[in-house]
Specification:
By secondary structure, the chain is of the alpha/beta class. 38% of the residues lie in helices and 22% in strands. Helix 3 crosses helix 4 and helix 8 runs antiparallel to helix 9. The radius of gyration is 26 Å and the shape is elongated. This is CBS domain-containing protein.
Amino acid sequence: MSHRKVSDVMTATVRIVYQGTPVRRIAEQLDFAGISAMPVLNDEADVVGVVSESDLLHKLTYQDEPDEWPRLLRRHRTDRAKAEGLVARDLMTTPAITIDADASVVQAAQLMEKRNVKRLPVVNDTGKLLGVVSRSDLVRLFVRSDTAIRDEVETEVLGRVLLHPAEVTAEVTDGVVTLSGTLRRRSDVGIAVEFARRIDGVVKVVDALAYVDDDTSYRALREQVSYPSGPFL
């Protein structure tokens, strides 16, 4: 059971700028597309950085502030340098925080959270740009229909993992999955709940499952050790 890949949810049509793109052109692109950041490419089409609205705002922040203090004493000397920049190369944040197209959506969310960014350039194994994945792309997973989620639970969890137990059903309401019925072993209950939880779009899993044999009890484990199954060597 695996989550969807970044390539499944990313936006493939991406606005880009090059290292030599002037500030005004960058601002026009961001404003026209209604986005907060864009990848910056070099002449070989490698992603070398990201330029954002906040990078442009440095020009306004320091516009009327005299540069009177030595650079070593200036708290925001990096921001000051960006404020004086004229092209993307001067403004961009580098190296770019990118993610592989084969990474899972969970890995993308974790990276965004860790690095406090709203969007990630998606690259292949040679660093070439394939698309962009944003927070909104990931949030969209939670608006999957209940029917789509139920179908995936039935196919992937009940079908492939539990091998179609006739006594188990899955119901989904507003992303909440309820598993009902009876399984042969208690350990299968935990497996069913855990794998259902991994389905993209699932908000919560309600465990309403029963079991026949408790194969997790001390007695059951002791019997397994005392009477191992399979041929004796």
